[in-house]
C-alpha cells in the first residue's frame, strides 16, 4: 500500500454535525421559503416563535437565510485556500472539502484548520502568526455562535411569555 504525501487528505465531518446542520438549515429553508407547509400550532412554544417570526419578520428571516448561505460559501472558499496552503493538490479532494464545508460550514472547516495548522507548522508553510490568527478566529466564531444561541433562546422565552400573557 502506497503512503500518501498528504495531497489527497480528506476527512468526513462527524455524523452529529451532518444531522444537526442538515436539519437546522433544512428547517430554516422551509420556514423562509414555504412556511405554509409547517404546522406551527403543533410545535408548542417553538412553533409560536417561528409563526411570529414568519408573520412579522419574514423579510428579516429571508435576509438571515441568505446570510447563512453566504457565510457557508465564504467558509468553503476559505477551505479551498487552506487546501492550497496545506498542499492538497488533488482536484477531487479539494472539491470534497469545498462541498462539505459549503454544506456543513465550520464543522468541516474546523477539521481542516486544525489539521492544516499542525501540518503546515511542521512543514514550515504557515508562519505562527497566521496559525494563531486562524485559531483565534475559530474560537471567536464558536463564542459568537454560543452567544447567538443564547440570544435566540432568550427571544423565544420572551415571545412565549408575551404570547401567554395575551391569552
TrEMBL record:
Topology within the bilayer: Multi-pass membrane protein
Recorded GO CC terms: membrane
Keywords: Membrane, Transmembrane, Transmembrane helix
Localization (cell): Membrane
Transmembrane annotation, as ranges: 15-34, 95-113
Main location: membrane
PANTHER family tied to this protein: TRANSMEMBRANE PROTEIN 254
Identification of the protein by name: Transmembrane protein 254
Organism of derivation: Merluccius polli (Benguela hake)
Lineage: Eukaryota, Metazoa, Chordata, Craniata, Vertebrata
Amino acid at each position: 500500500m502506497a503512503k500518501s504525501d498528504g495531497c489527497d487528505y480528506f476527512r468526513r465531518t462527524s455524523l452529529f454535525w451532518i444531522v444537526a446542520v442538515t436539519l437546522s438549515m433544512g428547517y430554516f429553508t422551509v420556514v423562509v421559503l414555504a412556511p405554509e407547509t409547517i404546522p406551527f400550532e403543533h410545535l408548542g412554544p417553538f412553533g409560536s416563535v417561528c409563526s411570529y417570526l414568519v408573520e412579522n419578520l419574514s423579510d428579516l428571516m429571508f435576509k438571515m437565510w441568505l446570510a447563512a448561505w453566504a457565510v457557508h460559501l465564504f467558509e468553503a472558499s476559505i477551505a479551498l485556500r487552506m487546501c492550497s496552503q496545506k498542499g492538497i493538490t488533488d482536484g477531487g479532494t479539494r472539491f470534497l472539502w469545498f462541498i462539505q464545508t459549503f454544506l456543513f460550514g465550520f464543522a468541516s472547516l474546523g477539521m481542516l484548520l486544525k489539521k492544516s495548522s499542525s501540518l503546515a507548522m511542521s512543514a514550515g508553510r504557515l508562519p505562527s502568526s497566521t496559525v494563531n490568527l486562524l485559531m483565534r478566529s475559530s474560537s471567536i466564531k464558536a463564542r459568537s455562535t454560543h452567544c447567538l444561541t443564547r440570544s435566540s433562546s432568550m427571544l423565544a422565552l420572551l415571545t412565549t411569555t408575551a404570547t401567554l400573557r395575551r391569552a
